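Exercise 7. Given the components listed, write out the predicted structure of the assembled complex. Treat all entries as one system.
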Amino acid sequence: MPQTRRIFLRNGAFALVGTAAVPAFLTRSLEAQTLAARAQGKVLVAIFQRGAVDGLNMVVPYKEKNYYRLRPDIGIKEEQLIVLDDRFGLHPALSGLKPLWDGGHLAAVHACGSPDPTRSHFDAQDFMESGTPGDRATTTGWLNRALTAQDAAAHNLHHTALRAVAMGAELPLTMAGPVPAVAIQNIARFGVGGPSPAAQAMSGDFKAMYDDSSNTLLHGTAQDAFAAVRALKGIDPAQYTPARGAKYPETAFGRSMKQVAQLVKANLGVEAAFADIGGWDTHQHQGGAEGQLAGRLKDFGDGLNAFWTDMGDAGENVVVVTMSEFGRTVHQNGTLGTDHGHANVMFVLGGPVQGGKVYGRWPGLDDHELYQNRDLAITTDFRQVLGEATYHTLGAGNLNRVFPGLNLQPSQFLNILKA
Amino acid sequence: MKKRTAGVAALLAACTMWCGAAVTGAAGQSGTDAVTHAATLTQRQQAEHILDRFTFGPTPGEVDAVAQMGWRKWFAEQMHPDAIADTQLDERLMQYPSLGLTPPELLAALPSNLIIRQIALGRAPYSQNWMVGGMEQVLVMKFQHKQLNEKGAKKKDDAQDAPRMLPDGVVTAENVTDTDTNSKTARRAEAQKLAEQVLAAPANERMADIMRLPVEQRAVLAEAVWGRERNELLQGSTPREREIFIAMGRGPDATLVADNELQQDAILRAVLSQRQLQEVMTEFWYNHFNVYMMKGADQWYTPSYVRDVIRPYALGKFPNLLIATAQSPAMLFYLDNWLSIGPNSIAAKRMDARNHQPHGINENYGREVMELHTVGVQGGYTQADVIALANIMTGWTIDRPILGGGATFMAARHEPGSIHWYGHTVRDNGYEEGREALLWLAAQPSTAHHISFELAQRFVSDTPPPALVNAMAATYMRTGGDIRQILWTMVNSPEFWQAKNIDNKVKTPLEFVASAFRATGTDPGNPEPLVYVLRQMGEPLFMCLTPNGYPLTGDAWMNTGALMARMNFAMRFAQGNVGDGGFDPRRVLADDGQVMPAAYSDGDDDGVLKDLPSLEMTLLGRRASAKTEGVIERQVEQMPHAAPEQKLRVMTALLLGSPDFQMR
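Answer.
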C-alpha cells in the first residue's frame, strides 16, 4: 500500500481518537451497522445534472396559480402532466420514471438545495460536490469522504480497486479524496495498450517499473490503475447485454449508466459510482411539454429507467441520488427560458427507497413565499438527502466527516430510505 | 466602435505610468549563494535542472549546450525574450489568422453563435465580404437546423419510438434505429463527389468554387472532408481560407474555431518556442489569473487576454499584471464585475424608478482578487471587506460584450461616497478608487508571500521551503513585485538546488506531452489532435472552470485514468501515431538530426541495446533508474527478431511511459 494512503489511515485513526468522547456503545453500533451495509454489498450512485435543471418543470407543482401565471408559455399544463399526487406531476418527457414511481422505488424531494446563495454554476457545483457550501477551500468530495467515514469505523474490510468509480475522463470533485477512485470513460478502452501480445508485454513492463518506483504518488496511482485493470479483466463490454430488455439511450448519459450497471452487476466491489449529464442551462427557448428541455429530460428519464430495468433484483442494494447545483427562476424570462434560481428537485431511486412520494416541505409559490422575490425557497438542505443516503447505503456513520460543520443528525433525515 | 476604442484607451492611459516603468538590469545574476550549493551538482546536472524547471522539457543536445554556456547565462538570456529570435515558431503561427485579431475583429472574422442567431432572425446583415458572407450562410443554415432539431426531437420520439408497456410494467422504447448511419454514408459520398469537383480547379480558385456551391452542399463538403483529404483540398489555400472552411465544417458557432486555434497556439509555443521561460511564465500567470474560455464572451476575449494581457507582463512587475488583468474584458466578464452596480449609484436609482430586475453589486471579483490573485485566503480580510471592494470596483465594466467591446468605466454604476475597506478609507474618487485599491493589495506583504509561495510551488517543490518563500517575498517587497528579480532570488537560493528538490515535480499533462515532442526532437505538425489528448488527460487548455486555475501539485494530476492515458500516449507516440510526421526512431539518437547509425542495419542485435544509456540521456536528460533500465533491457532481449527500428520504438515508449519521465 502506498505511503500516501498509510498516512491517510493514520489520520483516520487520529480522527477516531478525536471522537473518543463518543460513548463506546454508540461506536460499536455504528460499526455493526457499517459491517451490515458492506455485507449486503450496497452501492450508492450519484448523478449530477450539470447546468442547473429546471426542477419546477421536472416535478411540476400544478396546483400553484403562480406557476402558470409566471410561466404562461413554458408551463406544463395539468392535462399534459404525468400526475403523481394531488400537488405534483412529472414532465411528460419523464415517462420513463413513471413505472419506477408506481413500483414504489422512486421518490422526489422538492424545494431542496444548497443554502449558499450563489447563482454561479461553478461555485454552486463545487459546493454541492464538496458538500461544503460557501467553503471553496475544500478539495475533497462528499462521496469520497463518505467512504472514509466508513473506513474509520470498519478499517478491516476488504475493498477492491473499483470501490469508487466515476464515469468520465476526469475524476469529479464529488469523488476526489483519499480513497482510491477510478475515472473510467469507456470500460472497453480502460487499460494499457491493446489486446495484442506486444502491447500486453509492454503493459507488464510498465507495471514492473511502477511497482518498484520509489515515488509514492506514482507507485500508488499505478497500483490502483493496474488493480482496476485486473479487476475489469473478466468483463467484456462488447458482449454486455442489458437484462430484461432494458434500452439505454444512445447518449453519453445512457452509456454511462449502462457501464455503471455492468460494473455493479459484475460484482467487482463497486461501492460508490458517479455519472453526470449536462445541457440543463435553459436560458432561452426551453420549451414546454416539448422542446429543448423535454429532449434532455427524455434522455435522463429513459437512462434511469433502463438502469433500473437492467439492475433487476440487484437493484435491491442500489440507491441512486440525483442533484443539480441550483434551480431556476419561477418566472420565464424574456427569451422563453429561465434564469438561475435557488431550490430544486432531487430524485432518490433504489431498493430501500420508500418511493411513490414527494418528500420535503413545500414552501409554496405565492409572491410572498418566494426566495428573494423570484425563486423557489429551500426547505431541505441537499445534505440531509445525501447524508441519509450515505448513512444507510455506505454505512457512513461519521456524518461530520461527510459534511463537516453541518452537525447533521439522523433525526434530520427525511426517512426516504428504509432504516 | 469609436466609443469602445476610446474606453480602452482611457483605461490603458491610466496604466501608462506602470507599464512604462520598464524593468532594467538583472541584479542577482552574479549572486553567489547558489554557487556553492549548485557546486555539488555537475555542470550538466545544473543545466538539466534549470531546463527541467523553466522549459517544457530539454530538446536533444540542449542539456549539454547549457552545461557548456553555464545555466546562469542561459537563464539571463531567457529573461529577455524579445532578444531571442523565434522565427520557426512565428512562421508556424501564421497558420492561425485569428490569433492576431482584436475581439471585435475576431467576431467579424469568426462570428459567435449569438451573431449567427441575429443574422438568422434578420436583425443583423450578412457580411459584404463574399467569403465571410458565404460562411455565414452555412452557419445560419446550421443554426436553423439546430433550432428545428431541438423543437422536433420530441415529436420524432413520439412518432417513432412510442413507449410501450411490458408485462412487468417497465416502459421501454423501441430500438432507436439509427438512420444517421445511412445518411452519413450518403453525405460522405456526396462530399467525395464535391471534393473531386473542387479539386479540379486551381488552388487559388477553389474557395470561390466552394462558395458558389449551394449552401447545403457547401456544408456537406466542409463537414465530411477531413484530415488528409482536407489538407489536399486546401493545399495552396491561404490560412484564412482554411479557417473559413473549418468553421463551415463545424458551426453554427464559428468563434470556437478561434478558441481551438488558441489551444493549438499554446501547444506549438510549448513545443517549439525558443523563448521557453516566457512561455512557461505565461502559462503560470494565465493559470494564476485564470479565466474559463468557454464562459460566454470569454470565448472571444480569451485570445487577446493571453496575447495582450498575460504574455507581455509575464516577466514584468506584478502590480502591472494585476491591473492589466483587472481591466481586461476577459476578467471583467469571467468574474462578473462588469455586471456589478453600486446600490446607491445613479444607474441603480434609474433602475429602481423603472422597477427593473434585481440589481446590485456582484461580489465575485471582489472576493477572488483578494483570495486568489493577491493576499490569499489567509490575507486577513472579512466578508465586509469583500463587499466593500466589490463596491469600490463598481463601474469597471465592458462596453457591450456581445460585440467584443473593450473595458470601460461607467461612472453611473459606481457606488458614490468614501468606502471603509481593509482597515482604511478609500476616498470617493470614481475609477481611481479601484486602481488605488488594487495597487494597495499588490503592495501588501501577504501578497508578496502568496505570489512567492505559488512560484516556489510551481518551480521548486509541492511543499515549498518556508525560508525560500520568505527570501522571495523579501525580494518582491524590495523591488515592487519585479518578477525577474523574484525568479533570480529563487534560482540563487540553496533550496532550489537541493537534491530533494530535483526531479520531484510531477509533470502536468501539457508538460508531459510537450516534453515528449521536445525530448525526441519531433515536430508536432498539426497540433490539433493534441488539443483533445490534453482534454482527455484532464487539462483542456484555457478551460479550467474555476477561478483558482489548475493545481500546481502532483497529487492532483495523478489519477488512474490519467496515468494510463500517459502510458498509452507513450506507446502511440513511439509508434509514430501522434502528430503529422510522427516520431522518427531513426533520428532519436542523432543530435544533429541525422538518421540512425548504419551499424544497426546489418543485423547487429545488441547494437540498439548498447545505445540505451544514450537514449536515456536524450529523453530523460539523465540515466533512468536501475529498475526502469532493467525492465527495458529484458523487454528488448525478448524480441530478438525485431528490426532495430522497432526496438528503438519500444525502448522509447517504455522510457516515455516510465515513472522517470513523469517527473521533472
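Discussion: Residues 49 and 324 of chain A are 5 Å apart (CA to CA). Chain A touches chain B through 71 residues (CB under 8 Å).
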